[in-house]
């Protein structure tokens, strides 16, 4: 099956995207946060790719834990039944894409830490990978919603705009 045929196949998104990321909001939010972190770190000449790698993963882990905690606490405050260990595991699993989305941006930083990429290339490539991921998630979303080619292009363009906005702020701010 060619790419165009897969794009036209209405069953494709539910069969593939739905299984890969049940929490699309967390994935997109995590990618945006990760891009912002890397873009900010790249402005400091003293931040090495290794340090950026660990800061990125720590930030992703922090946001993931914060989302899990907030969800569990809100559920308890709203008067649902007493929290069980299975509830904690379910929320951790549901929110996992928020942390998981930082991994793809960590790859160029890891390559920079190993000396395979220069510092500047590693940090810039991480931001570009994040922008590409946002475009990809725009395509997944539009396919999941059953949009045609115009919807796919529109959703990918909106997500690309968010990514480009982060890149523009990185370039514009001293």
pLDDT average, as an integer? 83
Query: Considering DSSP H and I runs of 4 or more, what fraction of the residues is helical?
Result: over 70%
Q: Beta-strand percentage?
A: under 5%
What structural category arises from helix and sheet content? mainly alpha
Taking pLDDT < 50 over at least 5 consecutive residues as the criterion, the unreliable ranges are 3-19
> Any idea what the shape is?
globular
Cα distance spanning the termini: 48 Å
Largest sheet: none
Count of individual domains: 1
Number of helices: 7
Q: Give helix and strand order, one letter per element, not per position.
A: HHHHHHH
Over the alpha carbons, how many angstroms does the gyration radius reach? 18 Å
Q: Would you report the number of β strands?
A: 0
3D structure, described in words:
The chain is an all-alpha fold and 174 residues long. The protein has one domain (3-172). It is 81% helix and 0% strand. It contains 7 helices and no strands. The protein has helices spanning 3-8, 12-20, 24-41, 49-77, 85-113, 119-144, 149-172. α2 packs across α6, α4 (49-77) packs antiparallel against α5 and α6 (119-144) packs antiparallel against α7.
């Amino acid at each position: 099956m060619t790419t165009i045929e897969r794009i036209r196949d209405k069953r494709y998104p539910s069969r593939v995207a739905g299984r890969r990321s049940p929490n699309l909001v967390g994935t997109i939010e995590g990618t945006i946060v990760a891009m912002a972190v890397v873009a900010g770190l790249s402005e400091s000449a003293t931040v090495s790719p290794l340090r950026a790698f660990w800061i990125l993963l720590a930030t992703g882990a922090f946001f993931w834990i914060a989302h899990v905690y907030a969800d569990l606490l809100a559920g308890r405050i709203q008067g649902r039944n007493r929290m069980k260990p299975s509830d904690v595991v379910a929320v951790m699993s549901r929110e996992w894409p928020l942390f998981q989305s930082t991994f793809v941006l960590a790859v160029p930083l890891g390559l920079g830490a190993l000396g395979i990429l220069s510092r500047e290339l590693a940090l810039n490539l991480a931001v570009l990978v994040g922008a590409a991921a946002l475009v990809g998630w725009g395509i997944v979303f539009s396919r999941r919603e059953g949009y045609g080619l115009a919807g796919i292009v529109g959703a990918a363009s909106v997500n690309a705009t968010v990514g480009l906005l982060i890149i523009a702020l990185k370039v514009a701010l001293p």
